[in-house]
Amino acid sequence: LGALDDMADEDESALQLEAGDQWVMLPRVVGGRLHAVVSELTKGFGRDEALLEDLLMTHRLFTSPLRLLAKLVQRFDTAELALKAALRGGASGPAGPGQEPAVYDQVCVSVLEVFYTWMDSYWADFADETVQTVLSAFLNREMGSMGPDATRVMEGLWALLSQKKKQHTQREAFFAELSAPLPANFSCKHFALAHLDPKELAQQLTLIEFELFRRVTPIALLDALRSKQRQAEQPNPDPSLKRLVDRFNQVSFWVATEIVTKRDVEQRVASIKKFLHVARYCREWNNLNTCLEIVAALSMSPVQRLKRTWKLLSAKWTAAWSELKTLMSPRASYSNYRQHVKALGHQLPLLPYVGARVKDLLVLHEKHATKLPSGFVNFDKMRRLAGHVRQTQRYQGVAFAFREDRALQHYLFRGIFVMTEDELYAASTAAEPPPY
After folding, report:
1. Rounded to two decimals, what is the model's pTM?
2. Would you tell me how many other CB atoms lie within 10 Å of the CB of residue 140?
3. How far apart are the C-alpha atoms of 378 and 380, rounded to whole Å?
4. What is the CA radius of gyration of the chain?
5. Nearest CA-CA partner of 370 in 381, 385, 358
6. Which of 196, 231, 321, 356 is least surrounded by CB atoms within 10 angstroms?
7. DSSP string, 315-362
């Protein structure tokens, strides 16, 4: 495990508690040192499941998966030694002097249960080779002194380990399929924008982007809050948020490309109308991410400078553009968008703009210190951050029920032609040379 703090020398009471309220009757941990929180969560009885979830979700902000893993293994080792001594008679250990063997056995069970919850919910934490090595060494050790409960949980850990590795392979296979080069006989001409039905286009874009959104993990969301130094020291193994951000930019630049590359003004007008139609469907279905992708594209300078094109847009579509632009305006931290989402209440499915959620997390992160004046980790802050992430997870839990068109999805993911910003401007000026 490397150099670890000696748990026996640490103050096991290094917790800061807050009195419970009418909803939370027991005292709540608002601050503490890592070893003390680990001890609190592995007492063998009365575990605070909310605190455990907050720790597992946010620990990368103040420590590393390897260090948390080491603390758990050390806690298990201490309890196991005490268990062996208790079985021989006369023990003193993490549960206190002279306890019955069952008490130490329950501490061991609690540690294994924490491992199970961690692996089940945050498998990406175990992508690091060193973490995998430590975990494998722990799972492969001889544990003959454990009782039947601990043995049962250990068997469950092995089964979960196999399941997670299989799921990871399937997860990567999904992206490999979408990202694979187009077959030689694949004709993009079949998917020319003029021939695509706006409703079908909106549905397939929604399915692709919800799948990317559904796979964004808490680790990826919270990684944006870590300092650049900590990010360099502990690279994020989870690319799920980056994939969604890259997709946002890809679609926005594709929409702009489709418009500015049309030399005929009527075709440019038709393209703008097509994408406004797609955006209206997306808004109607609560796919606000793709809606914003299109609004962002139409707001780009190379598109906005096409004055002759915009003048030919009918009053109906000009009003539609104004409505969408107002809804997704970035002013006042996307206040119109936020009010719209709030008004939707519990309507699902919903594909939100994740950038707004990341901004909320950043504001909260900067407003509250990670460490309290006592040096304790500020678990009240971690609890608040976790609450925001859980709201995103609620949206991830209900998918859109559209029929899949894999050929069209493949085209929309790999076949679309995307220009750079400079290329967009050059095409725009070629379509409508200045002065406009």
Report:
1. 0.85
2. 9
3. 5
4. 27
5. 381
6. 231
7. HHHHHHHHHHHHHT--HHHHHHHHHHHHHHTT--S-B--HHHHHHHHH
